[in-house]
Amino acid sequence: xxxxxxxxxxxxxxxxxxxxxxxxxxxxxxxxxxxxxxxxxxxxxxxxxxxxxxxxxxxxxxxxxxxxxxxxxxxxxxxxxxxxxxxxxxxxxxxxxxxxxxxxxxxxxxxxxxxxxxxxxxxxxxxxxxxxxxxxxxxxxxxxxxxxxxxxxxxxxxxxxxxxxxxxxxxxxxxxxxxxxxxxxxxxxxxxxxxxxxxxxxxxxxxxxxxxxxxxxxxxxxxxxxxxxxxxxxxxxxxxxxxxxxxxxxxxxxxxxxxxxxxxxxxxxxxxxxxxxxxxxxxxxxxxxxxxxxxxxxxxxxxxxxxxxxxxxxxxxxxxxxxxxxxxxxxxxxxxxxxxxxxxxxxxxxxxxxxxxxxxxxxxxxxxxxxxxxxxxxxxxxxxxxxxxxxxxxxxxxxxxxxxxxxxxxxx
Length: 412
Prior knowledge:
Layout: H1 3-8, H2 21-26, E1 29-33, E2 38-40, E3 48-54, E4 57-61, E5 69-74, E6 79-80, H3 83-86, E7 95-98, E8 102-108, H4 109-118, H5 120-186, E9 197-204, E10 212-219, E11 223-231, H6 235-253, H7 259-273, E12 280-288, E13 293-299, E14 305-307, E15 334-338, E16 344-348, H8 350-353, H9 364-374, H10 380-395, E17 404-411
Antiparallel strand pairs: 1-8, 2-7, 3-6, 3-8, 4-5, 4-7, 9-17, 10-11, 11-12, 12-13, 13-15, 14-16, 16-17
Helix pairs in contact: 4-5, 6-7
């Protein structure tokens, strides 16, 4: 197929008179391009006009940058390079890459302008084609802008939702901080001062608030009520149940009833008030510091440690007992331990023995016993601090899984 025949297949030249075609054909150069070839780059100097005979070309803006955008995929009959005719500097307005093997007809701008002067209808057709392109480009731009507006609206909605979540999170963190302060205020801030007795307490919740509790209750007749407990859950539900249990324990202990009676009454109240299915393990004991005797009842809680001054352990027996808040008629056993001068009582929650290290090893009762003996010469409060630091060192990078609480009583 010769160039003249090619021209008759191109709609742009439908208006060109037959006697002009030979002259037009002589001004055109036939070019063949391989796929992937760059015909010209955006902002390159432009002095040629191209017509696609066969194949496809891709038109890009900002080619090779992060803002690269494919404008058109043009096939046979389309023309390009005309925009540089209207640019004072003659610069290319886009980058053109060959998509498939393509045949082009190339005409320089001088020849093209001459043709437009002699064939006004051709100028009109070029203008019409440009108008259609601009309209299509405008429609595409508007469609893209609408799409971006939808994306921006969605992103703004997500941002608003995220901001609301952040505000709610900050409010929750503030509420948890207040809850922690309230919980700390529930526990004794000032320990009773009793001649010949050294007291120490410490608690470390696994979350902002926890379910462990301790209490020291001044009673009549040279006696001190001692409480340690562990609610079955963690976090806010456990903290609320802990506060309820602590209030009930204090109220019943003030009646000066035996420890077993106190726990049975607390259990009765908890069964009436507990709709969440929680329960609490407790040790409640009465320290008769005049007669150096500790009478206690264990309701499903860890067996405390009793040590003499030389480190010899006093064994109060294994005992047994059921947690409060589960059964109507709970089984409890009361035990009594005589405490010679220099002896120590250590009550704790299972968060101490259940602490694990990165290898998932439990701290366990044996390690706790060893730590107690190692720090036996410290004051009660310094002793609690040293034990907690020992457990923390054992845990290393492993997270704290459970609340921890400890009460220590030194008998001088």
